[in-house]
Amino acid sequence: QVQLVESGGGLVQAGGSLRLSCAASGRTFSMYGMGWFRQAPGQEREFVAAISWSGRGTNYADSVKGRFTISRDNAKNTVYLQMNSLKLEDTGVYLCAAGYMLPPTSRPYEYTYWGQGTQATVSS
User: Fold this and answer.
1) Distant-in-sequence, close-in-space partners of 25: CB < 8 Å, separation ≥ 6
2) What does the CA dihedral 54, 47, 5, 93 come to, rounded to 10 degrees?
3) DSSP 3-state assignment of 72?
4) Which residue from 107, 93, 37 is spatially nearest to 68, judged by alpha carbons?
5) For 101, left (φ over 0), alpha (ψ -120 to 50), or beta?
6) β partners of residue 80
7) How many other β-carbons are positioned within 10 Å of the β-carbon of residue 16?
8) How many Cβ atoms from other residues are within 10 Å of residue 48's Cβ?
9) Backbone dihedral angles phi then psi of residue 121, each to the nearest 5 degrees
10) What pLDDT, on the 0 to 100 scale, is given for residue 28?
11) Residue range 74-106, pLDDT digits in tens
12) How sure is the predictor about 70, in pLDDT bands with cuts at 50, 70 and 90?
């Protein structure tokens, strides 16, 4: 069993930055691939970024490449999403996901555990 808790969301102007954190329970965090997804009202959940269980591979949605960075700190059981140059369309609930020994997959159905999400709102 893995529990995930996101934090770091908030309100920011376009062009600004936010850093999201996802804290995971358990003692096998280093064996889990981690992903970030986001969802706006009335929209399907979409892939944002992922990092492999080994930490050697990352994957980003085209819409966030060059602006967002995913990283992990296994000693702290935490994965981060640094979001820079934010745009209005980045607004949504950001959810953290985990799957045992996953590569940095963009497919949501491959993840086993999900957090409740943290809201990020970008204003003009």
Assistant:
1) 1, 2, 3, 4, 77
2) 160
3) strand
4) 37
5) left
6) 21, 71
7) 14
8) 24
9) -120, 125
10) 81
11) 889 999 999 999 999 999 999 999 999 999 999
12) very high
